[in-house]
Structure formats: structure tokens, C-alpha cells
From TrEMBL:
Xref: Gene3D superfamilies: NAD(P)-binding Rossmann-like Domain (3.40.50.720)
Entry keyword set: Oxidoreductase
Domain annotation Ketoreductase: ranges: 8-190
Superkingdom of the organism of origin: Bacteria
Keyword Transferase: no
UniProt keyword Oxidoreductase present: yes
Protein's name according to its UniProt entry: NADP-dependent 3-hydroxy acid dehydrogenase YdfG
Similarity field: Belongs to the short-chain dehydrogenases/reductases (SDR) family.
PROSITE patterns: ADH_SHORT
UniProt xrefs under InterPro entries: KR_dom, NAD(P)-bd_dom_sf, Sc_DH/Rdtase_CS, SDR_fam
Organism from which the protein derives: Agrilutibacter niabensis
Pfam families the record matches: adh_short
Length: 245
């Protein structure tokens, strides 16, 4: 366990797999106090037990980011367990891609609910406390899809553009709270498993032939967290060296 960095209380949404899980492992091993949130609590429990066996300070709580009351309960649990929240990593996201003419409106709504409202709920739950303390760090996970639009990804990209807009608005509205947007390129994860449209699923298989491991994004998040309070790493794009995307 590396405790060379200043230990912070960090909340991670979507922590049951992929980037969220990798970030939890990395930050706990750095010595941070980490609270895991996701709907799949059996995965969170297993991850928490593994990290505690290594000597880490970690807790978990059931979380549906589309529900504001869930998010406020999540933050209250973290504060009761480890004290005031220093950082929240709004990582939870879904990516059921499809052409617009497939009219998968339910999937569009789900992406908006998780990818946009989930981030807003995370901000709403931590912002009053951070403002009252005069410090804090909001890290929002966007995507390269928040920088360029691809066929079958119009709604997904729209949600990730929204994450960048929300983040920059928050950054401009405060001179005390740090705000970071992390935009991953192609990363191995379960996101593509939710794609029900055949066209989009086949395109994603080709798109993901070159992919980063989620640990690469975890290291980028840790870099932003580890900066002193007067240094705001506002935006990071992390992509495979050999990928054009």
C-alpha cells in the first residue's frame, strides 16, 4: 500500500466494473479512502473485500445515479464512514448505440438519464458541502465521443458533449472547487455489451480492435487528484497511441 500521497475521501460511481473498478483499485492502493457506488452490490462487496485484505480503506453503497435521493444517500454514507468528501468521480455511464432511424427511444432516454442526469445528481449531492468547506474536486468521465460524433453514436455523443459543457460551466462558476473532465478513447469495458442494434454492435467490434486497459484511465484520474488544491487539471484525453480515434 502506497501512502505517499495525501489521503483523500473519494467517491466513485459506476465502480462495479471497467474504469470505475480500475480507478477504485488504483486509488485505494495509493492510500485514499474510497467509497464505491453502483447497482451491482455483489460486485462492489467482492471488490471491497479484496481491497480491505490488502489493507485498504474502502466502503460500498448501492447507487442508482438516475435517482437524486440515491445519490444524496451515497454521499451521506461516505461522510458518515470516512468524513467530508474531497473528490467525486462521476464515472457511471451506458452506451447502447444505434442509428437514429432505429428509433430506440427507450435507449436514448436511458443514456440521457445515466450519462447526463447521473453527473448532475453527483454534482448536486456534493456541491453544497464542497462550497461550504471552500475546497473539493469534481471529476466527470466523458469520452472522445464528447469531441467528435460517429454514426450510430449521435445520442451517446450528445450526452458526452453535455458532460463537457456541464463541467466547464461548473469550473467557471467557482474559484475554489477543481473540475476535471477525463475523455477516454477506446477502452476495454462492458459498455458495448448493452448494444442491441446489430449495425452498431458490428461497428463497435471493429472500433475496439485497438483498446486501452481501464487502468490507463485510472492513472489519469489519479494524476488529476494528486495535484495541489491550486492546480486544476481541467481536461484530459487519453487514447491508445496506435488508434486514430
Amino acid at each position: 500500500m502506497n501512502t505517499s500521497t495525501l489521503s483523500k475521501t473519494v467517491l466513485i460511481t459506476g465502480a462495479s466494473s471497467g474504469i470505475g473498478e480500475a480507478t477504485a483499485r488504483h486509488l485505494v492502493r495509493q492510500g485514499h479512502r474510497v467509497v464505491l457506488g453502483a447497482r451491482r452490490t455483489e460486485r462492489l462487496q467482492k471488490l471491497a473485500e479484496q481491497l480491505r485484505e490488502e489493507g485498504g480503506q474502502v466502503a460500498f453503497h448501492a447507487l442508482d445515479v438516475t435517482r437524486l435521493d440515491d445519490m444524496t444517500d451515497f454521499v451521506a454514507f461516505a461522510e458518515t464512514t470516512f468524513g467530508p468528501v474531497d473528490t467525486i468521480v462521476n464515472n457511471a455511464g451506458v452506451m447502447p448505440l444505434s442509428p437514429l432511424n432505429a428509433l430506440k427511444v427507450d435507449e436514448w432516454d436511458r443514456m440521457i438519464d445515466v450519462n447526463v442526469r447521473g453527473v448532475l445528481h453527483g454534482i448536486a449531492a456534493v456541491l453544497p458541502g464542497m462550497e461550504s468547506r471552500g475546497r473539493g474536486h469534481v471529476i466527470n468521465v466523458s469520452s472522445i465521443g464528447g469531441h467528435a460524433v460517429s454514426p450510430t453514436a449521435a445520442v451517446y455523443c450528445a450526452t458526452k458533449y453535455a458532460v463537457r459543457a456541464i463541467s466547464d460551466g461548473l469550473r467557471q462558476e467557482t474559484d475554489k472547487i477543481r473540475v476535471t473532465v477525463v475523455s477516454p478513447g477506446v477502452v476495454e469495458s462492458e459498455l458495448a455489451d448493452a448494444i442491441s442494434d446489430t449495425t452498431a454492435r458490428d461497428a463497435m467490434k471493429a472500433f475496439r480492435r485497438i483498446a486501452l486497459q481501464p487502468e490507463a484511465i485510472a492513472r489519469a484520474i489519479a494524476y488529476a487528484i494528486d495535484q495541489p488544491d491550486d492546480v486544476d487539471v481541467s481536461e484530459l484525453i487519453v487514447r491508445p497511441t496506435s488508434s486514430p480515434y
